[in-house]
């Protein structure tokens, strides 16, 4: 059986070591992926200096190339993000902007560099917007070559105008736990298929 790895990009606006609901959801997804023999790590994007731009390397001080190297090494990319005013936050948009460079990057077989990789999404927030954010991310991630599995996202939204955070819940609601289990199972299944039989050149 092929060994699989995952990378979770956490798009919280909070620098480490602040508690992050987006990071907790990423950990929950990685925990479920571990049941399918997938190992992984978390990168909290805001902890790095990611320069604005749409190239793979924006020069002096840009730490995106190191993050990109981790994406290239992984079979599964997880983007876990909060909801702000019903929208994808600035850190998530920056990730999409930097991934735009992959439209010009090819592997040795002439395919986009992100081909044969699976992408899934996690969204948290105490306001609506999860479906909108997932659709934004899926469109961008699909454009640059990632493959999206069935039921490719999991999310938690509190009641309208609420103040609770996912990280503060005494336990994960069953509906969220079930969705997280499904997204992990489907991502691992698809990643195994793509690793064993890649897209044609």
TrEMBL record:
It comes from the Bacteria. InterPro entries: Flavoprotein-like_sf, FMN_Rdtase-like_dom. Residues 12-151 form the NADPH-dependent FMN reductase-like domain. This is Flavodoxin. Gene3D superfamilies: 3.40.50.360. One of its GO terms (molecular function) is oxidoreductase activity. The lineage of its organism: Bacteria, Bacillati, Actinomycetota, Actinomycetes, Micrococcales.
């Amino acid at each position: 059986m092929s060994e699989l790895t995952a990378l979770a990009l956490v798009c919280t606006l909070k620098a480490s070591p602040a508690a992050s609901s987006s990071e907790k959801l990423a950990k929950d997804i990685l925990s479920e992926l571990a049941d399918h023999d997938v190992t992984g790590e978390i990168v909290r994007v805001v902890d790095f200096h990611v320069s604005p731009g749409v190239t793979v390397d924006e020069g002096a001080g840009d730490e995106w190339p190191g993050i990109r190297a981790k994406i290239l090494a992984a079979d599964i990319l997880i983007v876990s993000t909060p909801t702000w005013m019903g929208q994808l936050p600035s850190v998530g948009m920056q990730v999409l902007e930097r991934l735009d460079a992959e439209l010009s990057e090819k592997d040795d077989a002439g395919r986009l560099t992100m081909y044969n990789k699976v992408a899934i999404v996690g969204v948290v927030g105490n306001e609506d917007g999860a479906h909108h954010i997932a659709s934004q991310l899926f469109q961008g991630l699909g454009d640059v070559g990632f493959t999206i599995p069935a039921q490719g996202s999991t999310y938690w939204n509190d009641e309208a105008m609420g103040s609770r955070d996912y990280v503060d819940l005494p336990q994960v609601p069953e509906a969220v736990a079930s969705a997280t289990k499904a997204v992990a199972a489907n991502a691992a299944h698809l990643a195994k298929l793509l690793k064993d039989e890649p897209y044609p050149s």
